[in-house]
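Q: What would this chain look like folded?
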Amino acid sequence: MLMPRQKTPELSVPTLSGSDFNLSEEQSERGVVICFYRGLHCPICANYLKELEKQTPVFAERGVTTIAISSDGRERTEEMAEKIDAKSLRFGYDLSLSKARKWGLYVSTSRGKTSIGIEEPALFSELVGALDFAIEKNYPARGEYAGEV
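A: My prediction, written as structure tokens:
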């Protein structure tokens, strides 16, 4: 379990800007907001990321950097960045599922296409906030994949 003021697991992912994000090397005055999101297939995530995009300059004024990270590859991450019209928010991609587990994320299996017609990856990290959407849409239980990643 992640605890405030305790060392976090290692985290390094490529970003759309072409450089790598490495948490242990992040240069910020007061910290970093890391937003893990499910992937391009998640319409709820797109809404959250739009809001984080709006707030990124506000965080920056306070010495806090931001990044949104998923297990999606570069192409799907670029699509998400375009979808939310990202200008300030950094995007990281290719988060390994084993690393996602170390960060306390759940892993789910694909159920095919989502309600917005985008194919879910075979396996992807899951957010608890997506439960309300899954309940509303009568999706099966999520985050229960316990096999090898």
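The chain is about 30% helix and 20% strand.
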